[in-house]
Amino acid sequence: MTSANDGAAAAPVCPRHPDRVSFVTCQRCERPACPECQRPAAVGVQCVDCVRQQQKAARPERSALGARVRTTKPVATITMIVLCVVSYVLQNVLPFGDWTARWVFTPWIGDVEPYRFLTTAFLHSSSIFHILLNMYALWMVGPILERLLGIGRFLSLYLLTAIAGSVGYLLLASPGSTSWETLVPGASGAIFGLFGAFMVVLRRFDASSAQLYGVIAINFVLGFILPGIAWQAHLGGFVVGAIMGAGYAYAPRERRTAWAFAIPVLTAAVLAAMTIVKYSMV
Protein backbone atom coordinates (compact mmCIF):
# COMPACT_ATOMS: atom_id res chain seq x y z
CA MET A 1 0.00 0.00 0.00
CA THR A 2 1.32 3.53 -0.92
CA SER A 3 0.79 6.28 1.61
CA ALA A 4 -0.08 9.93 0.85
CA ASN A 5 3.28 10.95 2.28
CA ASP A 6 5.10 8.74 -0.26
CA GLY A 7 3.26 10.53 -3.12
CA ALA A 8 4.19 13.93 -1.76
CA ALA A 9 7.84 12.89 -1.41
CA ALA A 10 7.88 11.77 -5.06
CA ALA A 11 6.65 15.15 -6.35
CA PRO A 12 9.35 17.01 -8.40
CA VAL A 13 10.93 20.00 -6.71
CA CYS A 14 12.97 22.92 -8.06
CA PRO A 15 16.72 22.26 -7.59
CA ARG A 16 17.29 25.90 -6.64
CA HIS A 17 14.31 26.00 -4.28
CA PRO A 18 13.81 22.49 -2.82
CA ASP A 19 10.78 23.64 -0.83
CA ARG A 20 8.82 24.37 -4.02
CA VAL A 21 7.05 21.68 -6.03
CA SER A 22 7.23 22.22 -9.78
CA PHE A 23 5.80 20.14 -12.60
CA VAL A 24 7.29 22.42 -15.27
CA THR A 25 10.63 21.24 -16.62
CA CYS A 26 13.40 23.08 -18.45
CA GLN A 27 13.42 22.33 -22.18
CA ARG A 28 17.22 22.16 -22.11
CA CYS A 29 18.23 20.17 -19.02
CA GLU A 30 14.77 18.72 -18.22
CA ARG A 31 15.05 19.62 -14.54
CA PRO A 32 12.03 21.03 -12.69
CA ALA A 33 11.89 24.83 -12.52
CA CYS A 34 9.66 26.83 -10.22
CA PRO A 35 8.04 30.06 -11.52
CA GLU A 36 10.90 32.16 -10.14
CA CYS A 37 13.50 30.11 -12.02
CA GLN A 38 11.64 29.89 -15.33
CA ARG A 39 12.68 31.93 -18.35
CA PRO A 40 10.67 32.05 -21.60
CA ALA A 41 12.35 30.25 -24.50
CA ALA A 42 11.56 29.87 -28.20
CA VAL A 43 9.69 26.70 -27.24
CA GLY A 44 8.55 26.25 -23.64
CA VAL A 45 10.75 27.54 -20.84
CA GLN A 46 14.34 27.17 -19.66
CA CYS A 47 15.79 27.38 -16.17
CA VAL A 48 17.98 30.31 -15.15
CA ASP A 49 21.09 28.09 -15.00
CA CYS A 50 20.76 27.03 -18.65
CA VAL A 51 20.08 30.60 -19.74
CA ARG A 52 23.26 31.76 -18.01
CA GLN A 53 25.30 28.99 -19.62
CA GLN A 54 24.01 29.99 -23.04
CA GLN A 55 24.86 33.63 -22.44
CA LYS A 56 28.43 32.76 -21.41
CA ALA A 57 28.90 30.53 -24.45
CA ALA A 58 27.49 33.10 -26.88
CA ARG A 59 30.07 35.22 -28.69
CA PRO A 60 29.76 38.89 -27.71
CA GLU A 61 28.49 41.24 -30.40
CA ARG A 62 31.25 43.32 -31.96
CA SER A 63 31.23 46.64 -33.75
CA ALA A 64 32.62 47.09 -37.26
CA LEU A 65 35.98 48.00 -35.68
CA GLY A 66 36.07 45.09 -33.26
CA ALA A 67 34.81 46.77 -30.07
CA ARG A 68 32.47 44.85 -27.84
CA VAL A 69 29.01 46.30 -28.26
CA ARG A 70 27.47 47.37 -24.98
CA THR A 71 23.84 48.24 -24.45
CA THR A 72 24.67 50.73 -21.73
CA LYS A 73 24.98 54.49 -22.21
CA PRO A 74 28.16 56.03 -23.68
CA VAL A 75 29.91 56.16 -20.32
CA ALA A 76 33.19 57.70 -21.51
CA THR A 77 31.49 60.48 -23.47
CA ILE A 78 29.18 61.34 -20.60
CA THR A 79 32.12 61.33 -18.18
CA MET A 80 34.06 63.82 -20.32
CA ILE A 81 31.02 66.09 -20.53
CA VAL A 82 30.42 65.94 -16.79
CA LEU A 83 34.06 66.75 -16.03
CA CYS A 84 33.95 69.76 -18.34
CA VAL A 85 30.68 71.02 -16.86
CA VAL A 86 31.88 70.59 -13.27
CA SER A 87 35.13 72.34 -14.12
CA TYR A 88 33.22 75.20 -15.77
CA VAL A 89 31.12 75.65 -12.64
CA LEU A 90 34.26 75.74 -10.51
CA GLN A 91 35.78 78.29 -12.87
CA ASN A 92 32.86 80.61 -12.24
CA VAL A 93 32.49 79.91 -8.52
CA LEU A 94 36.09 79.93 -7.34
CA PRO A 95 38.53 82.82 -7.77
CA PHE A 96 40.44 82.78 -11.08
CA GLY A 97 43.74 81.85 -9.51
CA ASP A 98 42.23 78.98 -7.52
CA TRP A 99 41.02 77.00 -10.52
CA THR A 100 41.46 78.36 -14.04
CA ALA A 101 44.97 79.70 -13.58
CA ARG A 102 45.96 76.48 -11.81
CA TRP A 103 45.08 74.20 -14.73
CA VAL A 104 45.05 76.27 -17.94
CA PHE A 105 47.79 75.82 -20.55
CA THR A 106 50.05 78.56 -21.81
CA PRO A 107 53.36 77.92 -23.62
CA TRP A 108 55.56 79.82 -21.21
CA ILE A 109 54.79 77.49 -18.30
CA GLY A 110 54.12 74.18 -20.07
CA ASP A 111 57.68 72.95 -19.74
CA VAL A 112 57.68 73.13 -15.94
CA GLU A 113 54.05 72.07 -15.44
CA PRO A 114 53.38 69.64 -18.33
CA TYR A 115 50.08 68.40 -16.85
CA ARG A 116 48.54 71.61 -18.19
CA PHE A 117 48.74 70.19 -21.72
CA LEU A 118 45.81 67.97 -20.72
CA THR A 119 43.99 69.75 -17.89
CA THR A 120 43.36 72.81 -20.04
CA ALA A 121 40.99 70.69 -22.15
CA PHE A 122 38.55 70.62 -19.23
CA LEU A 123 38.44 74.42 -18.96
CA HIS A 124 36.52 76.93 -21.05
CA SER A 125 36.29 80.68 -21.49
CA SER A 126 33.77 82.67 -19.48
CA SER A 127 31.33 82.70 -22.41
CA ILE A 128 28.65 80.04 -21.96
CA PHE A 129 28.58 79.52 -25.74
CA HIS A 130 32.14 78.18 -25.70
CA ILE A 131 31.32 75.18 -23.54
CA LEU A 132 27.86 74.69 -25.05
CA LEU A 133 29.23 74.42 -28.58
CA ASN A 134 32.03 72.09 -27.52
CA MET A 135 29.76 69.82 -25.50
CA TYR A 136 27.19 69.70 -28.28
CA ALA A 137 29.88 68.67 -30.74
CA LEU A 138 31.19 66.06 -28.29
CA TRP A 139 27.71 64.61 -27.85
CA MET A 140 27.22 64.57 -31.62
CA VAL A 141 30.20 62.35 -32.46
CA GLY A 142 31.37 60.95 -29.11
CA PRO A 143 28.79 58.18 -28.63
CA ILE A 144 29.23 56.96 -32.21
CA LEU A 145 33.00 56.70 -31.92
CA GLU A 146 32.79 55.21 -28.44
CA ARG A 147 30.52 52.45 -29.76
CA LEU A 148 32.80 51.75 -32.73
CA LEU A 149 36.13 51.91 -30.88
CA GLY A 150 35.19 50.81 -27.38
CA ILE A 151 35.88 52.76 -24.20
CA GLY A 152 39.65 52.17 -24.14
CA ARG A 153 40.44 53.31 -27.67
CA PHE A 154 37.93 56.17 -27.46
CA LEU A 155 39.48 57.58 -24.28
CA SER A 156 43.00 57.28 -25.67
CA LEU A 157 41.84 59.16 -28.76
CA TYR A 158 40.10 61.90 -26.79
CA LEU A 159 42.83 62.48 -24.22
CA LEU A 160 45.75 62.36 -26.66
CA THR A 161 44.07 64.73 -29.12
CA ALA A 162 43.36 67.05 -26.21
CA ILE A 163 47.12 67.07 -25.53
CA ALA A 164 47.79 67.40 -29.25
CA GLY A 165 45.73 70.59 -29.28
CA SER A 166 48.07 72.13 -26.71
CA VAL A 167 51.12 70.81 -28.54
CA GLY A 168 49.83 72.23 -31.82
CA TYR A 169 49.47 75.65 -30.23
CA LEU A 170 52.93 75.37 -28.69
CA LEU A 171 54.62 74.48 -31.98
CA LEU A 172 53.11 77.46 -33.79
CA ALA A 173 53.64 79.97 -30.97
CA SER A 174 56.61 82.34 -31.02
CA PRO A 175 58.67 82.85 -27.84
CA GLY A 176 58.60 86.47 -26.74
CA SER A 177 55.34 87.22 -28.57
CA THR A 178 51.86 87.53 -27.04
CA SER A 179 51.04 84.02 -28.27
CA TRP A 180 53.67 82.62 -25.90
CA GLU A 181 51.77 84.00 -22.90
CA THR A 182 48.22 83.49 -24.16
CA LEU A 183 45.94 81.23 -22.13
CA VAL A 184 44.54 78.35 -24.18
CA PRO A 185 41.51 76.82 -22.42
CA GLY A 186 38.97 74.56 -24.08
CA ALA A 187 38.19 71.05 -25.29
CA SER A 188 38.39 72.15 -28.93
CA GLY A 189 41.59 70.21 -29.60
CA ALA A 190 39.94 66.99 -28.47
CA ILE A 191 36.70 67.81 -30.29
CA PHE A 192 38.58 68.38 -33.56
CA GLY A 193 40.49 65.19 -32.83
CA LEU A 194 37.20 63.31 -32.79
CA PHE A 195 36.17 65.07 -35.98
CA GLY A 196 39.38 63.98 -37.69
CA ALA A 197 39.01 60.38 -36.54
CA PHE A 198 35.34 60.28 -37.50
CA MET A 199 36.07 61.50 -41.03
CA VAL A 200 38.63 58.73 -41.50
CA VAL A 201 36.24 56.10 -40.12
CA LEU A 202 33.50 57.29 -42.48
CA ARG A 203 35.88 56.99 -45.41
CA ARG A 204 36.94 53.54 -44.23
CA PHE A 205 33.35 52.35 -44.69
CA ASP A 206 32.67 54.43 -47.81
CA ALA A 207 30.18 56.58 -45.92
CA SER A 208 29.85 60.33 -45.86
CA SER A 209 28.31 63.02 -43.69
CA ALA A 210 27.80 66.39 -45.33
CA GLN A 211 26.54 67.77 -42.01
CA LEU A 212 29.77 66.81 -40.22
CA TYR A 213 31.95 68.21 -42.98
CA GLY A 214 30.00 71.44 -42.81
CA VAL A 215 30.43 71.72 -39.03
CA ILE A 216 34.19 71.11 -39.32
CA ALA A 217 34.59 73.66 -42.11
CA ILE A 218 32.61 76.31 -40.24
CA ASN A 219 34.63 75.81 -37.06
CA PHE A 220 37.92 76.00 -38.93
CA VAL A 221 36.88 79.23 -40.63
CA LEU A 222 35.67 80.74 -37.35
CA GLY A 223 39.04 79.92 -35.83
CA PHE A 224 40.73 82.17 -38.33
CA ILE A 225 38.13 84.95 -38.32
CA LEU A 226 37.07 85.38 -34.70
CA PRO A 227 39.61 86.71 -32.17
CA GLY A 228 40.50 84.68 -29.12
CA ILE A 229 40.09 81.27 -30.82
CA ALA A 230 43.17 79.05 -30.93
CA TRP A 231 43.00 77.62 -34.45
CA GLN A 232 46.43 76.09 -33.82
CA ALA A 233 44.87 73.80 -31.19
CA HIS A 234 42.10 72.85 -33.62
CA LEU A 235 44.67 71.95 -36.24
CA GLY A 236 46.84 69.94 -33.85
CA GLY A 237 43.92 67.94 -32.52
CA PHE A 238 42.47 67.33 -35.97
CA VAL A 239 45.72 66.04 -37.49
CA VAL A 240 46.49 63.69 -34.61
CA GLY A 241 42.86 62.53 -34.47
CA ALA A 242 42.91 61.68 -38.17
CA ILE A 243 46.16 59.74 -37.79
CA MET A 244 44.97 57.78 -34.76
CA GLY A 245 41.59 57.21 -36.38
CA ALA A 246 43.30 55.78 -39.45
CA GLY A 247 45.35 53.45 -37.28
CA TYR A 248 42.28 52.18 -35.46
CA ALA A 249 40.11 51.97 -38.58
CA TYR A 250 42.62 50.16 -40.81
CA ALA A 251 44.25 47.92 -38.18
CA PRO A 252 44.35 44.27 -39.31
CA ARG A 253 41.50 42.36 -37.71
CA GLU A 254 43.79 39.84 -36.04
CA ARG A 255 46.07 42.58 -34.62
CA ARG A 256 43.55 45.10 -33.36
CA THR A 257 44.42 44.50 -29.72
CA ALA A 258 48.14 45.06 -30.31
CA TRP A 259 47.44 48.16 -32.37
CA ALA A 260 45.11 49.48 -29.67
CA PHE A 261 48.12 49.62 -27.34
CA ALA A 262 50.77 50.60 -29.88
CA ILE A 263 48.96 53.58 -31.43
CA PRO A 264 48.49 55.58 -28.18
CA VAL A 265 52.03 54.80 -27.02
CA LEU A 266 53.59 55.94 -30.30
CA THR A 267 51.36 59.01 -30.45
CA ALA A 268 52.29 60.03 -26.90
CA ALA A 269 55.98 59.50 -27.67
CA VAL A 270 55.86 61.67 -30.79
CA LEU A 271 53.94 64.45 -29.01
CA ALA A 272 56.44 64.38 -26.15
CA ALA A 273 59.38 64.48 -28.55
CA MET A 274 58.00 67.47 -30.46
CA THR A 275 57.35 69.29 -27.20
CA ILE A 276 60.88 68.69 -25.94
CA VAL A 277 62.40 69.86 -29.22
CA LYS A 278 60.29 73.03 -29.23
CA TYR A 279 61.25 73.98 -25.67
CA SER A 280 64.91 73.20 -26.36
CA MET A 281 64.85 75.84 -29.09
CA VAL A 282 63.58 78.57 -26.76
UniProtKB/TrEMBL annotation:
<comment type="similarity">
    <text>Belongs to the peptidase S54 family.</text>
</comment>
<keyword id="KW-0812">Transmembrane</keyword>
<dbReference type="GO" id="GO:0016020">
    <property type="term" value="C:membrane"/>
</dbReference>
<dbReference type="InterPro" id="IPR050925">
    <property type="entry name" value="Rhomboid_protease_S54"/>
</dbReference>
<feature type="domain" description="Peptidase S54 rhomboid">
    <location>
        <begin position="113"/>
        <end position="248"/>
    </location>
</feature>
<dbReference type="InterPro" id="IPR022764">
    <property type="entry name" value="Peptidase_S54_rhomboid_dom"/>
</dbReference>
<keyword id="KW-1133">Transmembrane helix</keyword>
<keyword id="KW-0378">Hydrolase</keyword>
<dbReference type="InterPro" id="IPR035952">
    <property type="entry name" value="Rhomboid-like_sf"/>
</dbReference>
<feature type="transmembrane region" description="Helical">
    <location>
        <begin position="183"/>
        <end position="203"/>
    </location>
</feature>
<feature type="transmembrane region" description="Helical">
    <location>
        <begin position="258"/>
        <end position="277"/>
    </location>
</feature>
<feature type="transmembrane region" description="Helical">
    <location>
        <begin position="75"/>
        <end position="97"/>
    </location>
</feature>
<dbReference type="GO" id="GO:0006508">
    <property type="term" value="P:proteolysis"/>
</dbReference>
<feature type="transmembrane region" description="Helical">
    <location>
        <begin position="235"/>
        <end position="251"/>
    </location>
</feature>
<feature type="transmembrane region" description="Helical">
    <location>
        <begin position="151"/>
        <end position="171"/>
    </location>
</feature>
<dbReference type="GO" id="GO:0004252">
    <property type="term" value="F:serine-type endopeptidase activity"/>
</dbReference>
<keyword id="KW-0472">Membrane</keyword>
<keyword id="KW-0645">Protease</keyword>
<dbReference type="Pfam" id="PF01694">
    <property type="entry name" value="Rhomboid"/>
</dbReference>
<feature type="transmembrane region" description="Helical">
    <location>
        <begin position="210"/>
        <end position="229"/>
    </location>
</feature>
<protein>
    <submittedName>
        <fullName>Membrane associated rhomboid family serine protease</fullName>
    </submittedName>
</protein>
<feature type="transmembrane region" description="Helical">
    <location>
        <begin position="117"/>
        <end position="139"/>
    </location>
</feature>
